Amino acid sequence: MATFSVRFLGCKVSHVDAHAVRERLLADGHVERDGAADVAVVNTCCVTHEAVSKSRKEVARAARTHRRVYVTGCGANLAADAFAGLPDNVVVVAKRSEETPAFVAGDVGAIGCVHSDARLDRVRAFVKVQDGCSFACSFCVIPLVRGPSRSRPAASVLAEIRRRVAQGHREIVLTGINLGCYRDREAGYDLPRLVREAGATPGLERLRLSSIEINHVSDALVAALRETPTVGRHLHVPLQSGDDAVLRAMGRRYTVATYLRRLAPLQEELNLTSDVIVGFPTEDERAFENTLRTVREAGLTKIHVFPYSPRPGTVTAGEDAVPPQVKRERAARLRAASHEACLARWRTKVGRDDVVLVDRPGRGYGDDYSPWLVDPSAPVGELLRVRGAAVSEEGILAA
Ligand code: SF4
Fold this sequence. Notes:
- The chain is built from twelve helices and 20 strands.
- It folds into four domains: 3-108, Rossmann fold (3-Layer(aba) Sandwich); 120-232, Transcription Regulator spoIIAA (2-Layer Sandwich); 233-347, Transcription Regulator spoIIAA; 353-398.
- It is an alpha/beta fold.
- Strand 10 and strand 11 form a beta hairpin.
- Helices cover 34% and strands 24% of the residues.
- 44% of the residues are buried.
- Bound molecules: iron/sulfur cluster.
């Protein structure tokens, strides 16, 4: 029996992949432990230069308190030298996410199978339905480290959702690298059908999508979101840039007009959030102004802002024309605009009711994924009916 700890950096998919290793080690009879242990697994991220250096720091830290450290995830599949020069007890596992749990468990060594139905260490359960990406955005390293798009059989996804609900998870987030590419051709499933059936799981209170490309916001998907009562009133649709010339240089498959046209019918009924890269090599001040205007016109609230960093092996790997100071200044302007948009949306909740999933003491998210501050004694994991009393810098205060 070995003691182990698992940590992850990056996105929801990285979280799910880390959990898959955790569940396998528990199933093999090993014991999870915070702090020092025999084995550490660090599921790494490489979406930006900063993510790689944070991952490296996390691995170096684990190497000081664990006999063996497995470096898994996107960072491990990037360039192996990303983790060069670390102590000998560090093992870089450059494998697909599907193969990683068995590899790590095999290396640690099974002592006999004990059934372990490990509940996710979060209130909302992320269920991965798709991995990889067959798009080729010029700045993105993900297709290189995760491979082409592939989907889990619908039966396996729906069974996991039933299992997570049985474990007590009230909210499920369908998660993937390029979720809209989901297809189970054999069983005749696409994402709209999966949303309808997943959303109808007995006992499930709320269903969300992690993120969806604008190309996949089809009439069929919109109908499924509208007609499935458990679907949360929120959609995260990456924009990346609000300038057509920059979108072309990024290799994105839409124009600003398409993005705005597809989201316009949803602005009233959904909270729309997004990702934007600032400081892409071809982005000048006029292009950035176009991004600010597009964010306003699309009615986007929360924007995850990513200062551009060239990634190895990508089309734009050798390009980084925008000075760091300009990136910082544009990121600050966009974050300020995003915060103003969030406050405006939160103010509409004052005097109105919502149902909040309490995911930390005194905190949670409403149906449209707006943040709420609730009674600190409200049980974590519970759905709480609330009424908006006021707005703070951090969210809506419940009466
Ligand atoms: S759609 Fe583009 S940005 Fe998103 S994972 Fe695929 S290549 Fe990367």
